[in-house]
Amino acid sequence: MEITVSKRFLRVPVKFDGTSHKFTFSENGTPVYKFDAVYTEENADAVYYADLRDYLGKTMTVTVEPECAFTPVFEDAMTPLTAEETVLRPQLHFTAERGWINDPNGLCFYGGQYHLFYQHNPYGRLWGNMHWGHAVSPDLFHWEYKEEAMFLDMDGAMFSGCAVVDHNNVSGLKEGDETPILFFYTCAGEKKSTQCLAYSTDGGKTLKKYDKNPLIDEIAPGNRDPKVIYDAKRARWLMALYFVERTYAIFTSQDLLHWELLQKFDLPGDDECPDLYPLTADDGRTLWVYSGAHDMYFVGDFDENGLYQPIQSVGQLSYNSQSYAAQTYYYEPGKPVIRFAWNRSDIPGAPFNGSMCTPTEMTLKKHGDRYYLSALPIKSTENLVVKSDKLDGFTLTHCTHELGSKTCRISFTVKEGGLTFSLYGLEMKLDKNGLTCGESILPRLKNEPMKVDIITDTNSVEIYLNGVANTVIAHVLDEAKPTFTIHAEDPVEVQNLTVSELSLRCVQ
């Protein structure tokens, strides 16, 4: 079928389940764009949109496999979702406007705004068709959706990657007065996986793929997810890259364009989505964290030969896989290290799915002879409090607190003893060994009080224990049980119990 792109958006009505159809768009006989969708022209569960802005006014050939009834309908803009379609949208956690979301990508601060790019399927609520979505925020909570940033092409899908603000133009890609932003990503083709570059010379508004891609050809099947950072002490750029199985790699560069393999090593218990960044611990020592998608991590430093060396056995921060593929914002000396993780909690029946976890500030804590990676909600989360009840130190066997919002933050400390507590029907237990919720068991720091911090939001519960262990529980909050309840067999001293209701409306 030949179509003339008369308006920017092509309507793509879909069913949430059914036979997937492959759409291929060709220009002058050359395929230029493709996507899969469970297309239907009757009784659609949702409507998505193909952004064809690069082809306005052009005549294209469209093939659909397997064949189905296809009537092209073009629109100037996407029709907003209805209130019914968005009733389950989380309030605190970032979601795509529509479609599937997973790994955070391209995290950088530029032009007074935090930029969040992310793995995005614009054509359904499940994984596939990997593009890069884009949103900006002044505070990491109030987000403005931007245009799709990178489209899959005939070489492959746009898998995960990172951003670098090239202040000194070492890449030579600067045009005009604007500092270039470089975006490293994996092009995941059917036959091989390569590391590629896109860049922006207009502050992240538009991304252009580098005309000399790939930067790194396939070195192992499925190698992916580059994370780039500057090593100021050794005046070099570093790229962390997933290699194969449990093996990760580090590459080096002087110009961000030409890369050499420095080393390979195993990160036990993990695979894909590496992150690499320096942190100054609470004892004043600066060390480097190397982590994977499952939040297993090394703490270490670079030796006299410039090779990364862990100084202790592998650590663990997250205790299930609901929080996944975390990445820190592009590192700026003297600023907090902030990171996002993908919240894998399902949003049932909605035309969007997946979200980001609460943004966290990363620190290193020395406890005994070991360093622990710590993640706690960023300080500005406190600005979202609209109501707070503080129940300072007391001894109890039972208490119940009514909750007026699904978006809450609850914190308290227990020095000794055990108790159970429930939150919107979700049961948890705290004892001398740590905190248990479902199959997640968060270990206690030896001889330390247990500081619990919890954030709830519509379809998930995030739990932090002393900052050094966390989990995300997929749990659609039970409106019939809007309570926080504590129960103990024997009297237990609970300190600094605070129950806060959160709202994005309180920040202008």
Give a written overview of the molecule.
With 508 residues, this protein is mainly β. The chain is built from no helices and 41 strands. Strands 31, 32, 33, 34, 35, 36, 37, 38, 39, 40 and 41 form an 11-stranded antiparallel sheet that branches. Strands 11-10-9-8-27 form a 5-stranded mixed sheet, with no helix packed on it. Strands 20, 21, 22, 23 and 24 form a 5-stranded antiparallel sheet that branches.
* CATH top-level class of the largest domain: Mainly Beta
Say what the CATH topology of the largest domain is: Tachylectin-2, Chain A
How much helix is in the residues?
Answer: under 10%
Work out the helix count: 0
- Mean pLDDT across the residues is 95
Number of domains: 3
Q: Which term fits the overall shape?
A: globular
CATH H-level superfamily title of the largest domain: Glycosyl hydrolase domain, family 43
Percent of residues in β-strands: over 45%
Query: How far apart are the termini?
Result: 49 Å
CATH architecture of the largest domain: 5 Propeller
- As residue ranges, the low-confidence spans are none
Structural class: mainly beta
- What is the number of strand segments? 41
| Major sheet description | 11 strands, antiparallel
